[in-house]
Amino acid sequence: SSKKTQVVRCSVKTQEEQIYATQVKRNPNFAKLQAGYLFPEIGRRRAAHIAKHPDAKVISLGIGDTTEPIPSVITDGMKNKAHGLSTLEGYSGYGAEQGEGPLRTAIQQLYSKISPHTGVKPNEVFVSDGAKCDIARLQMMFGSDVTIAVQDPSYPAYVDSSVMMGQTGLYQTHSQQYSKIHYMKCSPENDFFPDLSSTPRTDIIFFCSPNNPTGAAATFQQLEELVSFAKRNGSIIVYDSAYSIYITDDSRPKSIYEIPGARKVAIEISSFSKFAGFTGVRLGWTVVPEELMYADGSPLGEPFPVIKDFNRVMTTSFNGASNIAQAGGLACLSEEGWKAMEDLVGFYRENVSILVTALKSVGLTTYGGENAPYVWVHFPGQSSWDVFAKILEEANIVTTPGSGFGPGGEGFVRISAFGHRENILEAAERLKKLFG
Ligand code: MLT
């Protein structure tokens, strides 16, 4: 008979092997966050799908990441700057934390081109490494005591940065909302513009137009309503115009400052990412008008200019955007650069229309697209994550589940139009087959 020999390993963990914990307590606000940030979570699901089906030709239309090369008139600007750094005359170290003068002026001129009434001044423009980073820096400036409202659905960085800052209560499983954040429902029923008559006052209102994820761009009248709502309530609007270059319909403002009175109530954040394919280069900006005032803060308790605190944030926690990226930004805003960017945006617009045509041809209802690089597809009564999983499993296409942008996105899936043409055409065919 065979005897089994059992080897018993006796392991005594040395002190070094045992988990060592510091005496620092975790920030409890971080424990409130749900799962991971949306896009890394989608990346994980994509990786798991590829691991399971290594031969699948997966097309990624999930995260809105640009795919086409940056026009060389723009990269030439960066190349020249980079080469200059190798010369005595061309070398520069730290720049101004607020951005280089010529770029701040060029951005101001962009606003004057949009409309002669925006009133933006170069010193109100703060150049940065991107709109998302500025959202976090604005949250740092507002602190933990403010109340916020967001469009529902909305870009997840507003909500998650608010949670991290401690502006919210706990996540409520039944409503899928954080307590203390007001979610302004935006759906086809209200033309994706919140019902302000039932919206409570909050200190800060995050508003993105053209919207990520729904693709809806607010009209002049809607934004006039929003500005007067903020004015009545003494709120500050943080207006995200990162997708404004995609607006084709002239009845939609490209900047909140096209609305009279907005300078007193609104900060605008924007970015070169979706304009020029700068998602990797990193360059954005924030405008804080001089007229925007806190209720108090002066030595005698009088109103205090917000711009002074934002300047303080930028000089304390930022050392200015990369000088090479800023040279790229300046090239984007030259006449030739602008034309090249418009061509690039035109390419993505064609992608949108290929996707929309395909989806509509099989009877699906789509929104967005017209003024944004995102198509918001309606699957009434279905779970967004289920539809996401079906499209991934059966068509090898990565999308973004609408509910990842807030409970108001349930029943929708966002499809990004950033992709190489052959992938968009292939995705359109696969979607037609899947839903046809
Ligand atoms: C998105 O997919 O929503 C974008 O990548 C957001 C972003 O610009 O960070």
TrEMBL record:
SUPFAM superfamilies referenced in this protein's UniProt entry, alphabetically: PLP-dependent transferases
Keywords: Aminotransferase, Pyridoxal phosphate, Transferase
Taxon lineage: Eukaryota, Viridiplantae, Streptophyta, Embryophyta, Marchantiophyta
Family: Belongs to the class-I pyridoxal-phosphate-dependent aminotransferase family. LL-diaminopimelate aminotransferase subfamily.
GO process terms (BP): systemic acquired resistance, salicylic acid mediated signaling pathway
HAMAP family: DapL_aminotrans_1
Superkingdom of origin organism: Eukaryota
Name of the protein this chain belongs to: Aminotransferase class I/classII large domain-containing protein
Residue span(s) of domain Aminotransferase class I/classII large: 57-431
Organism: Riccia fluitans
Keyword Glycosyltransferase listed: no
Molecular function as annotated in GO: transaminase activity
Cofactor: pyridoxal 5'-phosphate
